[in-house]
Amino acid sequence: MIYTNISINFIEEIIQEDINKGFPKKKLRFRFPPEPNGYLHIGHAKSICLNFGLAKKYKAFVNLRFDDTNPTKEENIYVNAIKNDIQWLGFIWDKECYASDCFEKLYKWAFQFIKEGKAYIDEQPQDIILKQRKTPFEPGIDSPYRTRPVRESLVLFKKMKDGKFEEGEGVLRAKINMKSANMNLRDPIMFRILKVIHQKTKNKWDVYPIYDWAHGQSDFIEKISHSLCSLEFENHRPLYEWYLKNIKKKERSKQIEFARLNISDTIMSKRKLYIVIKDGFVEDWDDPRLSSLRGLRRKGYTPESIRDFCHRIGISKRDNVINLKLLESSIREQLNKIAIRVMVVLNPLKLVIENYPEDKIEWFPAENNQESQKSGKRKIPLSKKLYIEREDFLEKATKTFHRLSIGKEVRLKNAYIIKGTGFLKESTGNIIEISAVYDTKSQSGSESSRRKIKCTLHWVDAIQTLDIETRQYELLFSLEVPDAKKYFLRFFNHHSLKIVHGYGEPFLRKVRPGEFFQFQRIGYFCVDQKSSSIIFNRTVILRQSHL
Ligand code: ATP
Ligand code: MG
Protein backbone atom coordinates (compact mmCIF):
# COMPACT_ATOMS: atom_id res chain seq x y z
CA MET A 1 0.00 0.00 0.00
CA ILE A 2 1.24 3.47 -0.83
CA TYR A 3 1.02 5.84 2.09
CA THR A 4 0.83 9.54 1.51
CA ASN A 5 0.52 10.76 5.08
CA ILE A 6 3.18 10.93 7.71
CA SER A 7 1.99 8.91 10.69
CA ILE A 8 2.37 9.93 14.31
CA ASN A 9 5.96 9.98 15.43
CA PHE A 10 7.67 11.31 18.54
CA ILE A 11 8.15 14.75 16.97
CA GLU A 12 4.49 15.02 16.20
CA GLU A 13 3.70 14.03 19.76
CA ILE A 14 5.83 16.93 20.99
CA ILE A 15 4.10 19.34 18.61
CA GLN A 16 0.70 18.06 19.67
CA GLU A 17 1.66 18.52 23.30
CA ASP A 18 2.76 22.10 22.58
CA ILE A 19 -0.59 22.76 20.93
CA ASN A 20 -2.43 21.21 23.88
CA LYS A 21 -0.50 23.50 26.20
CA GLY A 22 -1.63 26.53 24.23
CA PHE A 23 0.87 27.00 21.40
CA PRO A 24 -1.22 28.60 18.62
CA LYS A 25 -1.53 26.31 15.60
CA LYS A 26 -1.24 29.26 13.27
CA LYS A 27 2.27 29.93 14.59
CA LEU A 28 3.54 26.51 13.56
CA ARG A 29 6.29 26.91 11.00
CA PHE A 30 8.83 24.47 9.65
CA ARG A 31 11.83 24.61 7.35
CA PHE A 32 14.07 22.38 5.33
CA PRO A 33 17.65 23.77 5.40
CA PRO A 34 19.87 22.25 2.68
CA GLU A 35 23.35 23.45 1.97
CA PRO A 36 23.62 24.12 -1.79
CA ASN A 37 26.86 22.15 -2.11
CA GLY A 38 25.55 19.03 -3.82
CA TYR A 39 22.44 17.23 -4.97
CA LEU A 40 19.86 15.82 -2.61
CA HIS A 41 19.91 12.18 -1.60
CA ILE A 42 17.42 9.81 -0.03
CA GLY A 43 18.55 10.94 3.44
CA HIS A 44 17.43 14.46 2.63
CA ALA A 45 14.13 13.00 1.46
CA LYS A 46 13.53 11.78 5.01
CA SER A 47 13.95 15.30 6.34
CA ILE A 48 11.87 16.80 3.51
CA CYS A 49 9.01 14.35 4.05
CA LEU A 50 9.13 15.09 7.77
CA ASN A 51 9.12 18.89 7.52
CA PHE A 52 6.82 19.25 4.54
CA GLY A 53 4.64 16.43 5.82
CA LEU A 54 4.13 18.19 9.15
CA ALA A 55 3.43 21.49 7.41
CA LYS A 56 0.84 19.78 5.28
CA LYS A 57 -0.75 18.06 8.23
CA TYR A 58 -1.03 21.22 10.33
CA LYS A 59 -1.65 23.54 7.36
CA ALA A 60 1.43 25.41 8.49
CA PHE A 61 4.12 27.29 6.61
CA VAL A 62 7.30 25.62 5.52
CA ASN A 63 10.37 27.48 4.31
CA LEU A 64 13.04 26.23 2.01
CA ARG A 65 16.17 27.71 3.48
CA PHE A 66 19.50 27.45 1.78
CA ASP A 67 22.27 27.35 4.33
CA ASP A 68 24.71 29.20 2.14
CA THR A 69 27.39 30.06 4.66
CA ASN A 70 30.29 28.36 2.91
CA PRO A 71 30.73 29.95 -0.54
CA THR A 72 33.82 27.89 -1.31
CA LYS A 73 31.65 24.84 -1.92
CA GLU A 74 28.29 26.27 -2.87
CA GLU A 75 26.94 26.90 -6.34
CA ASN A 76 23.79 28.19 -7.92
CA ILE A 77 23.42 25.04 -9.99
CA TYR A 78 22.83 23.14 -6.73
CA VAL A 79 20.22 25.68 -5.60
CA ASN A 80 18.20 25.01 -8.74
CA ALA A 81 18.72 21.27 -8.60
CA ILE A 82 17.56 21.13 -4.97
CA LYS A 83 14.41 23.10 -5.80
CA ASN A 84 13.72 20.85 -8.72
CA ASP A 85 14.18 17.68 -6.64
CA ILE A 86 11.86 18.89 -3.87
CA GLN A 87 9.18 19.71 -6.42
CA TRP A 88 9.66 16.33 -8.02
CA LEU A 89 9.14 14.73 -4.60
CA GLY A 90 5.77 16.46 -4.59
CA PHE A 91 6.30 19.32 -2.14
CA ILE A 92 5.92 23.09 -2.42
CA TRP A 93 7.54 25.54 -0.02
CA ASP A 94 5.96 28.77 1.11
CA LYS A 95 9.06 30.91 1.16
CA GLU A 96 12.50 30.57 -0.36
CA CYS A 97 15.05 31.87 2.15
CA TYR A 98 18.82 32.02 2.36
CA ALA A 99 21.08 32.21 5.38
CA SER A 100 22.77 34.96 3.37
CA ASP A 101 19.57 37.03 3.70
CA CYS A 102 20.65 37.40 7.35
CA PHE A 103 24.35 38.22 6.84
CA GLU A 104 23.78 41.89 7.63
CA LYS A 105 21.95 41.10 10.85
CA LEU A 106 24.50 38.48 11.83
CA TYR A 107 27.26 41.01 11.31
CA LYS A 108 25.49 43.60 13.43
CA TRP A 109 24.73 41.16 16.23
CA ALA A 110 28.35 40.03 16.18
CA PHE A 111 29.45 43.65 16.47
CA GLN A 112 27.15 43.98 19.47
CA PHE A 113 28.66 40.85 21.01
CA ILE A 114 32.13 42.38 20.76
CA LYS A 115 30.91 45.60 22.36
CA GLU A 116 29.46 43.60 25.25
CA GLY A 117 32.69 41.62 25.70
CA LYS A 118 31.09 38.42 24.40
CA ALA A 119 33.27 38.03 21.33
CA TYR A 120 36.83 38.80 20.28
CA ILE A 121 39.10 38.72 17.26
CA ASP A 122 41.63 35.92 17.44
CA GLU A 123 44.66 36.35 15.19
CA GLN A 124 46.15 32.92 15.77
CA PRO A 125 46.26 30.41 12.92
CA GLN A 126 43.37 27.94 12.71
CA ASP A 127 45.49 24.91 13.65
CA ILE A 128 46.63 26.54 16.89
CA ILE A 129 43.07 27.47 17.76
CA LEU A 130 42.06 23.89 17.13
CA LYS A 131 44.86 22.53 19.31
CA GLN A 132 44.00 24.86 22.18
CA ARG A 133 40.44 23.58 22.22
CA LYS A 134 41.88 20.21 23.38
CA THR A 135 39.56 17.23 23.88
CA PRO A 136 36.35 16.72 25.85
CA PHE A 137 38.45 15.06 28.57
CA GLU A 138 40.70 18.03 29.34
CA PRO A 139 40.07 21.75 29.59
CA GLY A 140 40.95 23.95 26.63
CA ILE A 141 43.56 26.72 26.69
CA ASP A 142 42.57 30.38 26.45
CA SER A 143 43.75 32.27 23.41
CA PRO A 144 46.18 35.11 24.25
CA TYR A 145 43.75 37.37 22.38
CA ARG A 146 40.81 36.40 24.60
CA THR A 147 41.36 39.34 26.92
CA ARG A 148 42.25 41.95 24.29
CA PRO A 149 40.44 45.27 24.65
CA VAL A 150 36.95 45.52 23.14
CA ARG A 151 37.95 48.55 21.08
CA GLU A 152 40.76 46.58 19.41
CA SER A 153 38.41 43.76 18.37
CA LEU A 154 35.85 46.23 17.07
CA VAL A 155 38.40 47.93 14.83
CA LEU A 156 39.82 44.63 13.60
CA PHE A 157 36.39 43.16 12.87
CA LYS A 158 35.50 46.20 10.78
CA LYS A 159 38.80 45.92 8.94
CA MET A 160 38.19 42.24 8.30
CA LYS A 161 34.82 43.10 6.81
CA ASP A 162 36.35 45.80 4.65
CA GLY A 163 38.78 43.36 3.12
CA LYS A 164 41.88 44.65 4.85
CA PHE A 165 42.94 41.17 5.98
CA GLU A 166 43.83 38.04 4.10
CA GLU A 167 42.17 34.67 4.66
CA GLY A 168 43.37 33.01 7.86
CA GLU A 169 44.66 36.21 9.42
CA GLY A 170 41.86 36.45 11.92
CA VAL A 171 38.55 35.02 13.09
CA LEU A 172 35.81 36.27 15.35
CA ARG A 173 35.23 33.99 18.30
CA ALA A 174 32.45 33.94 20.86
CA LYS A 175 33.76 34.25 24.41
CA ILE A 176 31.96 31.43 26.19
CA ASN A 177 33.90 28.83 28.14
CA MET A 178 37.17 27.15 27.16
CA LYS A 179 36.65 24.59 29.92
CA SER A 180 33.15 23.53 28.96
CA ALA A 181 32.57 19.80 28.66
CA ASN A 182 30.66 20.64 25.50
CA MET A 183 33.32 21.35 22.86
CA ASN A 184 30.90 23.53 20.93
CA LEU A 185 31.04 26.06 23.75
CA ARG A 186 34.84 26.41 23.76
CA ASP A 187 34.90 29.85 22.17
CA PRO A 188 33.46 28.80 18.80
CA ILE A 189 34.28 30.74 15.67
CA MET A 190 31.48 33.03 14.50
CA PHE A 191 33.00 34.69 11.42
CA ARG A 192 35.96 33.87 9.21
CA ILE A 193 37.54 35.61 6.23
CA LEU A 194 36.87 34.10 2.82
CA LYS A 195 37.92 35.94 -0.30
CA VAL A 196 35.55 34.18 -2.64
CA ILE A 197 32.55 35.09 -4.72
CA HIS A 198 29.34 33.98 -3.05
CA GLN A 199 26.77 32.44 -5.39
CA LYS A 200 24.17 34.95 -4.17
CA THR A 201 25.82 37.93 -2.49
CA LYS A 202 28.67 37.90 -5.05
CA ASN A 203 31.61 40.00 -3.74
CA LYS A 204 29.72 41.95 -1.09
CA TRP A 205 31.29 40.13 1.84
CA ASP A 206 34.80 39.23 2.85
CA VAL A 207 33.70 37.70 6.12
CA TYR A 208 31.24 34.85 6.34
CA PRO A 209 29.39 33.47 9.36
CA ILE A 210 30.03 29.90 10.43
CA TYR A 211 27.02 27.61 10.03
CA ASP A 212 26.51 27.41 13.81
CA TRP A 213 26.35 31.19 14.13
CA ALA A 214 23.86 31.46 11.27
CA HIS A 215 21.61 28.50 11.88
CA GLY A 216 19.76 29.34 15.08
CA GLN A 217 19.47 33.00 14.12
CA SER A 218 17.99 32.09 10.72
CA ASP A 219 15.42 29.94 12.54
CA PHE A 220 14.67 32.88 14.82
CA ILE A 221 14.39 35.44 12.00
CA GLU A 222 12.13 33.18 9.97
CA LYS A 223 10.03 32.49 13.10
CA ILE A 224 10.44 28.73 12.78
CA SER A 225 8.43 27.15 15.59
CA HIS A 226 9.97 23.68 15.46
CA SER A 227 13.46 23.28 14.10
CA LEU A 228 14.02 19.64 13.25
CA CYS A 229 17.66 18.61 13.01
CA SER A 230 19.53 15.37 12.75
CA LEU A 231 21.08 13.94 15.93
CA GLU A 232 24.57 15.34 15.44
CA PHE A 233 23.21 18.79 16.27
CA GLU A 234 22.03 17.76 19.72
CA ASN A 235 25.08 19.17 21.47
CA HIS A 236 25.08 22.26 19.28
CA ARG A 237 21.75 23.17 20.87
CA PRO A 238 23.32 24.77 24.01
CA LEU A 239 25.38 26.97 21.69
CA TYR A 240 22.34 28.03 19.67
CA GLU A 241 20.59 28.83 22.94
CA TRP A 242 23.56 30.82 24.21
CA TYR A 243 23.61 32.88 21.03
CA LEU A 244 19.91 33.66 21.13
CA LYS A 245 20.00 34.44 24.84
CA ASN A 246 22.77 36.93 24.17
CA ILE A 247 21.06 38.67 21.32
CA LYS A 248 18.26 38.94 23.88
CA LYS A 249 15.57 37.16 21.96
CA LYS A 250 12.88 35.47 23.93
CA GLU A 251 10.92 33.76 21.19
CA ARG A 252 12.92 30.79 20.05
CA SER A 253 12.24 27.80 17.94
CA LYS A 254 12.16 24.44 19.62
CA GLN A 255 14.94 22.26 18.28
CA ILE A 256 14.16 18.56 18.11
CA GLU A 257 16.73 16.06 16.93
CA PHE A 258 16.00 12.84 15.09
CA ALA A 259 18.14 10.02 13.71
CA ARG A 260 19.59 10.39 10.25
CA LEU A 261 18.63 7.89 7.65
CA ASN A 262 21.30 5.28 6.97
CA ILE A 263 20.66 2.62 4.36
CA SER A 264 22.63 -0.58 3.93
CA ASP A 265 24.74 -1.19 0.82
CA THR A 266 24.87 2.44 -0.19
CA ILE A 267 26.68 5.70 0.50
CA MET A 268 24.85 8.84 1.41
CA SER A 269 27.34 11.28 2.78
CA LYS A 270 27.87 14.04 0.22
CA ARG A 271 31.60 13.86 0.79
CA LYS A 272 31.66 10.21 -0.24
CA LEU A 273 29.31 10.80 -3.14
CA TYR A 274 31.69 13.48 -4.40
CA ILE A 275 34.60 11.08 -4.29
CA VAL A 276 32.95 8.34 -6.34
CA ILE A 277 31.75 10.89 -8.89
CA LYS A 278 34.95 12.93 -9.13
CA ASP A 279 37.18 9.86 -9.37
CA GLY A 280 35.01 8.43 -12.14
CA PHE A 281 33.74 5.38 -10.25
CA VAL A 282 30.23 6.32 -11.39
CA GLU A 283 28.92 8.56 -14.16
CA ASP A 284 27.58 11.58 -12.31
CA TRP A 285 25.11 12.60 -9.59
CA ASP A 286 22.31 10.98 -11.58
CA ASP A 287 24.04 7.62 -11.92
CA PRO A 288 21.28 5.07 -11.18
CA ARG A 289 23.56 3.25 -8.73
CA LEU A 290 23.62 6.20 -6.35
CA SER A 291 21.22 7.06 -3.57
CA SER A 292 20.90 10.63 -4.85
CA LEU A 293 17.32 11.54 -5.72
CA ARG A 294 18.46 12.10 -9.31
CA GLY A 295 20.04 8.66 -9.43
CA LEU A 296 17.00 6.96 -7.96
CA ARG A 297 14.72 8.88 -10.30
CA ARG A 298 16.74 7.82 -13.33
CA LYS A 299 16.71 4.27 -12.08
CA GLY A 300 12.92 4.34 -12.08
CA TYR A 301 11.97 5.30 -8.54
CA THR A 302 8.81 7.41 -8.33
CA PRO A 303 8.20 10.25 -5.82
CA GLU A 304 5.35 8.18 -4.36
CA SER A 305 7.64 5.25 -3.65
CA ILE A 306 10.16 7.47 -1.87
CA ARG A 307 7.47 9.13 0.22
CA ASP A 308 6.09 5.70 1.02
CA PHE A 309 9.52 4.52 2.09
CA CYS A 310 10.02 7.58 4.32
CA HIS A 311 6.67 6.89 5.89
CA ARG A 312 7.52 3.27 6.55
CA ILE A 313 10.85 3.93 8.21
CA GLY A 314 9.27 6.50 10.52
CA ILE A 315 11.21 8.92 12.68
CA SER A 316 13.28 7.74 15.57
CA LYS A 317 15.67 9.12 18.10
CA ARG A 318 18.18 6.30 17.76
CA ASP A 319 20.62 5.72 14.93
CA ASN A 320 20.04 2.59 12.91
CA VAL A 321 20.65 1.19 9.45
CA ILE A 322 17.67 0.49 7.24
CA ASN A 323 17.91 -2.46 4.89
CA LEU A 324 17.98 -1.45 1.23
CA LYS A 325 15.33 -4.10 0.61
CA LEU A 326 12.77 -1.90 2.29
CA LEU A 327 13.35 0.86 -0.25
CA GLU A 328 13.13 -1.71 -3.01
CA SER A 329 9.86 -3.06 -1.73
CA SER A 330 8.33 0.43 -1.80
CA ILE A 331 9.05 0.89 -5.49
CA ARG A 332 8.15 -2.68 -6.32
CA GLU A 333 4.72 -2.28 -4.77
CA GLN A 334 4.03 0.83 -6.73
CA LEU A 335 5.36 -0.44 -10.02
CA ASN A 336 3.25 -3.54 -9.61
CA LYS A 337 0.26 -1.24 -9.93
CA ILE A 338 1.41 0.98 -12.75
CA ALA A 339 4.02 -0.79 -14.87
CA ILE A 340 2.98 -2.31 -18.18
CA ARG A 341 3.86 -6.01 -18.42
CA VAL A 342 5.80 -6.88 -21.50
CA MET A 343 7.82 -9.81 -22.72
CA VAL A 344 11.55 -9.46 -23.16
CA VAL A 345 14.13 -12.22 -23.55
CA LEU A 346 17.56 -11.35 -22.24
CA ASN A 347 19.43 -14.61 -22.72
CA PRO A 348 17.89 -15.82 -25.98
CA LEU A 349 17.65 -19.34 -27.30
CA LYS A 350 15.93 -19.80 -30.67
CA LEU A 351 12.89 -22.06 -30.78
CA VAL A 352 11.30 -23.33 -34.00
CA ILE A 353 7.69 -24.53 -33.92
CA GLU A 354 7.82 -27.38 -36.42
CA ASN A 355 4.11 -27.63 -37.16
CA TYR A 356 3.55 -23.87 -37.44
CA PRO A 357 2.98 -22.65 -41.04
CA GLU A 358 6.01 -20.97 -42.57
CA ASP A 359 4.58 -17.54 -43.39
CA LYS A 360 1.90 -17.27 -40.79
CA ILE A 361 1.85 -14.48 -38.21
CA GLU A 362 -0.79 -14.39 -35.49
CA TRP A 363 -1.43 -11.51 -33.11
CA PHE A 364 -2.56 -12.38 -29.60
CA PRO A 365 -4.20 -9.96 -27.19
CA ALA A 366 -2.28 -9.37 -23.96
CA GLU A 367 -3.30 -7.40 -20.91
CA ASN A 368 -1.02 -4.49 -20.16
CA ASN A 369 -1.44 -4.83 -16.42
CA GLN A 370 -3.90 -7.20 -14.81
CA GLU A 371 -3.77 -5.07 -11.62
CA SER A 372 -5.18 -2.08 -13.47
CA GLN A 373 -8.20 -2.35 -15.76
CA LYS A 374 -7.48 1.08 -17.21
CA SER A 375 -4.16 0.08 -18.68
CA GLY A 376 -5.80 -1.79 -21.58
CA LYS A 377 -4.49 -4.43 -23.93
CA ARG A 378 -2.01 -4.75 -26.74
CA LYS A 379 -1.22 -7.36 -29.36
CA ILE A 380 1.73 -9.71 -29.50
CA PRO A 381 2.93 -11.38 -32.71
CA LEU A 382 3.82 -15.06 -33.07
CA SER A 383 5.40 -16.78 -36.05
CA LYS A 384 7.26 -20.03 -36.60
CA LYS A 385 10.45 -18.84 -34.89
CA LEU A 386 10.74 -17.26 -31.54
CA TYR A 387 13.10 -16.77 -28.61
CA ILE A 388 12.81 -18.10 -25.10
CA GLU A 389 15.28 -17.70 -22.25
CA ARG A 390 18.13 -20.17 -22.35
CA GLU A 391 17.51 -20.95 -18.69
CA ASP A 392 13.99 -22.10 -19.55
CA PHE A 393 15.18 -25.17 -21.46
CA LEU A 394 16.86 -28.35 -20.29
CA GLU A 395 17.57 -31.35 -22.51
CA LYS A 396 16.37 -33.63 -19.77
CA ALA A 397 13.95 -32.41 -17.17
CA THR A 398 14.79 -33.04 -13.54
CA LYS A 399 12.21 -33.52 -10.81
CA THR A 400 12.34 -29.88 -9.91
CA PHE A 401 12.61 -28.43 -13.42
CA HIS A 402 9.14 -27.71 -14.76
CA ARG A 403 10.07 -25.61 -17.73
CA LEU A 404 10.63 -26.76 -21.32
CA SER A 405 12.42 -30.02 -22.13
CA ILE A 406 12.04 -32.82 -24.62
CA GLY A 407 8.59 -34.38 -24.36
CA LYS A 408 7.42 -31.81 -21.84
CA GLU A 409 4.71 -29.21 -22.32
CA VAL A 410 4.72 -25.55 -21.34
CA ARG A 411 2.48 -22.66 -22.23
CA LEU A 412 3.81 -19.72 -24.18
CA LYS A 413 2.35 -16.75 -22.34
CA ASN A 414 -0.75 -15.40 -24.12
CA ALA A 415 -0.35 -17.97 -26.92
CA TYR A 416 -0.22 -21.77 -27.30
CA ILE A 417 0.92 -24.82 -25.42
CA ILE A 418 4.08 -26.28 -26.96
CA LYS A 419 5.95 -29.54 -26.42
CA GLY A 420 9.72 -29.86 -26.76
CA THR A 421 10.80 -32.20 -29.58
CA GLY A 422 14.53 -31.71 -30.17
CA PHE A 423 17.56 -29.47 -30.19
CA LEU A 424 20.62 -28.57 -32.22
CA LYS A 425 24.00 -28.60 -30.53
CA GLU A 426 27.35 -27.22 -31.53
CA SER A 427 30.45 -29.40 -31.15
CA THR A 428 31.21 -27.41 -27.99
CA GLY A 429 28.02 -28.73 -26.44
CA ASN A 430 26.27 -25.41 -26.70
CA ILE A 431 22.63 -25.69 -27.71
CA ILE A 432 21.88 -23.25 -30.53
CA GLU A 433 18.29 -24.05 -31.40
CA ILE A 434 15.42 -26.07 -30.05
CA SER A 435 12.34 -27.39 -31.73
CA ALA A 436 8.81 -27.91 -30.50
CA VAL A 437 5.30 -28.60 -31.71
CA TYR A 438 2.26 -26.63 -30.70
CA ASP A 439 -1.21 -27.74 -29.80
CA THR A 440 -3.35 -25.92 -32.36
CA LYS A 441 -6.35 -25.83 -30.05
CA SER A 442 -4.63 -24.45 -27.01
CA GLN A 443 -4.75 -20.72 -27.62
CA SER A 444 -4.86 -18.76 -24.34
CA GLY A 445 -8.35 -17.76 -23.35
CA SER A 446 -10.06 -20.15 -25.82
CA GLU A 447 -12.60 -22.78 -24.73
CA SER A 448 -10.32 -25.66 -25.55
CA SER A 449 -7.35 -24.17 -23.68
CA ARG A 450 -8.48 -25.19 -20.23
CA ARG A 451 -5.75 -27.79 -20.05
CA LYS A 452 -3.72 -27.25 -16.89
CA ILE A 453 -0.05 -26.71 -17.63
CA LYS A 454 2.44 -26.25 -14.80
CA CYS A 455 4.64 -23.67 -16.45
CA THR A 456 4.11 -20.55 -18.51
CA LEU A 457 7.11 -19.07 -20.30
CA HIS A 458 7.68 -15.60 -21.63
CA TRP A 459 8.95 -15.40 -25.19
CA VAL A 460 9.49 -13.01 -28.06
CA ASP A 461 8.79 -13.58 -31.74
CA ALA A 462 12.03 -13.84 -33.72
CA ILE A 463 10.84 -11.92 -36.78
CA GLN A 464 8.69 -9.16 -35.34
CA THR A 465 11.16 -8.28 -32.68
CA LEU A 466 13.11 -5.37 -31.30
CA ASP A 467 16.74 -5.37 -30.18
CA ILE A 468 16.90 -3.83 -26.75
CA GLU A 469 19.59 -2.73 -24.35
CA THR A 470 19.22 -3.00 -20.61
CA ARG A 471 21.40 -1.70 -17.81
CA GLN A 472 21.41 -3.87 -14.76
CA TYR A 473 22.70 -2.46 -11.54
CA GLU A 474 24.26 -4.46 -8.76
CA LEU A 475 25.33 -3.19 -5.36
CA LEU A 476 28.10 -0.58 -5.50
CA PHE A 477 29.99 -2.02 -2.54
CA SER A 478 30.76 -5.45 -1.21
CA LEU A 479 30.24 -4.18 2.30
CA GLU A 480 27.01 -3.95 4.22
CA VAL A 481 27.43 -0.42 5.54
CA PRO A 482 29.97 1.34 3.29
CA ASP A 483 28.95 4.73 4.67
CA ALA A 484 30.44 3.77 8.02
CA LYS A 485 33.90 2.97 6.61
CA LYS A 486 36.65 5.47 5.91
CA TYR A 487 38.27 3.27 3.27
CA PHE A 488 34.97 2.45 1.63
CA LEU A 489 36.48 2.61 -1.89
CA ARG A 490 38.43 -0.57 -1.24
CA PHE A 491 35.10 -2.37 -1.31
CA PHE A 492 33.92 -0.84 -4.57
CA ASN A 493 32.28 -3.34 -6.89
CA HIS A 494 33.76 -2.67 -10.32
CA HIS A 495 31.14 -4.90 -11.90
CA SER A 496 28.15 -3.03 -10.56
CA LEU A 497 26.91 -2.10 -14.03
CA LYS A 498 26.01 -4.84 -16.50
CA ILE A 499 24.89 -3.98 -19.99
CA VAL A 500 22.69 -6.76 -21.28
CA HIS A 501 21.17 -6.92 -24.76
CA GLY A 502 18.09 -8.89 -25.64
CA TYR A 503 14.90 -9.02 -27.67
CA GLY A 504 11.61 -7.35 -26.88
CA GLU A 505 8.09 -7.19 -28.25
CA PRO A 506 7.56 -4.68 -31.08
CA PHE A 507 5.30 -2.76 -28.68
CA LEU A 508 8.45 -1.42 -27.02
CA ARG A 509 9.39 0.50 -30.15
CA LYS A 510 7.23 3.42 -29.05
CA VAL A 511 8.31 3.89 -25.46
CA ARG A 512 8.88 7.29 -23.91
CA PRO A 513 11.71 8.30 -21.56
CA GLY A 514 10.77 7.65 -17.95
CA GLU A 515 8.12 5.04 -18.80
CA PHE A 516 7.91 2.00 -16.51
CA PHE A 517 7.68 -1.63 -17.53
CA GLN A 518 7.65 -5.00 -15.96
CA PHE A 519 9.66 -7.41 -18.05
CA GLN A 520 7.74 -10.50 -17.14
CA ARG A 521 9.57 -12.94 -14.90
CA ILE A 522 12.62 -10.64 -14.93
CA GLY A 523 12.06 -7.32 -13.19
CA TYR A 524 10.95 -3.73 -13.38
CA PHE A 525 12.62 -1.44 -15.88
CA CYS A 526 12.39 2.23 -16.71
CA VAL A 527 13.29 3.92 -19.99
CA ASP A 528 16.43 5.98 -19.43
CA GLN A 529 15.79 9.71 -19.53
CA LYS A 530 19.26 10.78 -20.54
CA SER A 531 20.25 8.60 -23.47
CA SER A 532 19.25 9.39 -27.02
CA SER A 533 18.77 5.69 -27.80
CA ILE A 534 16.29 3.50 -25.95
CA ILE A 535 17.92 2.02 -22.88
CA PHE A 536 16.06 0.24 -20.12
CA ASN A 537 17.39 0.79 -16.62
CA ARG A 538 16.61 -2.00 -14.22
CA THR A 539 14.80 -0.44 -11.29
CA VAL A 540 14.43 -3.57 -9.19
CA ILE A 541 14.16 -7.30 -9.69
CA LEU A 542 10.87 -9.07 -9.10
CA ARG A 543 10.46 -10.45 -5.64
CA GLN A 544 11.02 -13.94 -7.00
CA SER A 545 12.99 -13.28 -10.08
CA HIS A 546 13.35 -16.44 -12.15
CA LEU A 547 16.42 -15.38 -14.02
P1 ATP B 1 25.73 15.17 4.18
O1 ATP B 1 26.29 14.60 5.43
O2 ATP B 1 25.18 14.16 3.25
O3 ATP B 1 26.66 16.11 3.50
P2 ATP B 1 24.35 17.38 5.30
O4 ATP B 1 23.63 17.26 6.58
O5 ATP B 1 25.63 18.11 5.33
O6 ATP B 1 24.45 15.97 4.62
P3 ATP B 1 22.62 19.37 4.34
O7 ATP B 1 22.42 19.89 2.97
O8 ATP B 1 23.20 20.26 5.35
O9 ATP B 1 23.46 18.05 4.20
O10 ATP B 1 21.26 18.77 4.88
C1 ATP B 1 20.04 19.45 4.86
C2 ATP B 1 19.10 18.83 5.82
O11 ATP B 1 18.91 17.45 5.52
C3 ATP B 1 19.62 18.90 7.25
O12 ATP B 1 18.56 19.31 8.08
C4 ATP B 1 20.04 17.51 7.56
O13 ATP B 1 19.85 17.21 8.90
C5 ATP B 1 19.12 16.68 6.68
N1 ATP B 1 19.77 15.43 6.31
C6 ATP B 1 20.93 15.27 5.63
N2 ATP B 1 21.25 13.96 5.55
C7 ATP B 1 20.26 13.29 6.18
C8 ATP B 1 20.00 11.91 6.44
N3 ATP B 1 20.84 10.96 6.02
N4 ATP B 1 18.89 11.60 7.12
C9 ATP B 1 18.04 12.54 7.53
N5 ATP B 1 18.21 13.85 7.34
C10 ATP B 1 19.31 14.24 6.67
MG1 MG C 1 25.05 20.16 6.63
Folded structure, characterized:
- 38% of the residues are buried.
- 25% of the residues lie in helices and 24% in strands.
- It is elongated and about 100 Å long.
- The protein folds into 4 domains: 10-99 and 212-325, HUPs (Rossmann fold, 3-Layer(aba) Sandwich), CATH 3.40.50.620; 103-210, Glutamyl-tRNA Synthetase, domain 3 (Alpha-Beta Complex), CATH 3.90.800; 344-458, Ribosomal Protein L25, Chain P; 467-541, Ribosomal Protein L25, Chain P.
- The chain has 547 residues and is an alpha/beta fold.
- Strands 10-25-26-27-23-24-11 form a 7-stranded mixed beta sheet.
- It has 12 helices and 27 strands.
- Helix 2 crosses helix 11.
- Residues 33-35, 43-44, 46-47, 67, 229-230, 260-261, 268-270 line the site of adenosine-5'-triphosphate.
- It catalyses: tRNA(Gln) + L-glutamine + ATP = L-glutaminyl-tRNA(Gln) + AMP + diphosphate.
- Its EC number is 6.1.1.18.
- Residues 456-528 form the tRNA synthetases class I (E and Q) anti-codon binding domain.
- Belongs to the class-I aminoacyl-tRNA synthetase family.
- It holds the Pfam family tRNA-synt_1c_C2.
Task: Give the structure's gist in a few sentences.
The chain is an alpha/beta fold and 547 residues long.
